[in-house]
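For the sake of transparency, this paper describes our internal protein records without simplification. The record that follows is passed on verbatim for readers who wish to inspect the format:
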Amino acid sequence: MEAFPRPAGEVHAHGTTRFDLLHEMQHDPEQSLYEPFLDQDEWELAQTLMTSGMSFNHMDKLLKLPIMTTRTQTSFTNKRTLLNKVDTLPTGGPEFLCETITVHGDVKDANGEYMTEELELFYRDPVECVRELMGNPAFRDSLHYVPERVFEDKKRTKRIYNEMWMANWWWDLQASPMIMIKSKLPAGATICPVILASDKTRLSQFSGDKAAWPVYLTIGNIPKATRRKVSAHANILLGYLQISKLKCFSAGTRKAQGWQLFHYCMCTILSRMVIAGASGVDILCADGGIRKVFPILAAYVADFPEQALVACVKENWCPICKCYPEDRGDPLATIFADDPGTLFRCPADHMQHIDTNSADEAGPRDDVGIREVRQPFWEILPHCDIFRCLTPDILHQLHKGVFKDHLCSWCMKVATHPETDARFQAVPSHPSVRHFKEGISSISQWSGTEYKNMEKVFVGLMAGALPPQALKAARAVLDFVYLSQYPSHTTTTLNCLQDALNRFHRYKEAFVHSKKEQGCRRGTNFSQ
């Protein structure tokens, strides 16, 4: 392991954590251990009621029964008094804030006035959420405050990339902290990599039109194995984004105003991170040390449509690079973002295009595929490069996109649908592999389970049905898909990942034929 050569994650003072204060309070002889409840029996009754899944109406009826009011005589007599006691427990986390947003439309009502719509935005302070996570005693022994480089050999030639503090981003930012603004991080500063995740979810399946758009926050100082445990409570609900049909706008401007509303809501939610990320904030950590913490957006987890929304890019364009949609089948000239010949997007250049397009009376240009968003939320965040923050969407981009929508359809056109179905039907039953007894052509509802089960046997089933070069290309794609899902990478596995990509580009021309009836397609453009 190579330790970071400069001061980082230093403690400049000590304090008493909230857990220690509660521990002292609970051992106070003048105070009940089960405060605000009377005794252990009442605590267990309240715990059972709150975790049983019972509705509030049934809970209210139960607490109002004569046997509860005359014999049990608890300190709570209905659901309201019970919930009030539960709210006083020190486990609620940062409080929710509510802001009313007034949207002024461009459609006039019956009185000739422009229509407006009021929306409520519920959110938490992201700095307080970071404070809650870094001060949680459950993470005391697992929190990391300093970047490091880990190697699997003594000569330090094969690096291990397993956690966020082992990657280059944290190391480079701590060593050379001039990325987006001209202020440097002070010596001994503690970087808190903020990880955001959002997913618009439909709540009603058969009737109604209910949907929710939650945003979650966690930090990269916590190991990923802990972050993924639901029971660890390492992810905090940061807020709910507004979902509105925006009927106060005309049909031609409604979609663009929806993009603008998303970024305005995110600006409101993350406004406290602007000053905290630039100047730092003192946070009492779980080990009792007070550190100068800089919460900086490091990753944004979302599906592909939301990635395009976050990056202010049209959905037929890549949200990370400036590759033209018709050139997606070609390999990039360079994969390094700081290379002069790179196609990676740059926040400064992106904002310049947005400003140029907004001043253009003819409307936005399509040369880089940008969307009309006046002020993206990431523009104000210090040390943030949003195009490096976007994480791969394994399900939609690899399993569904590259494998199912492209590779699988190419192979089925070459091998014919009946032959492909017959081969899947002939697979022997096995507990770890789904048996497609009707083939795969008749499946109308696909999910990640079907994709993964097909990938397990796909190369073996296509042997003999595809030309040798096409089979090698399919093998390369499957190698890439499986290697990309490794929980831990090394220099060796990353080289294997690049080799799989190179092999696909080497053999992909097997799917391209001059005559349409002889082959599966005219090119290997993944946007088609």
In short: Residues 177-183, 361-365, 514-518 have pLDDT under 50 and may be disordered. The radius of gyration is 28 Å.
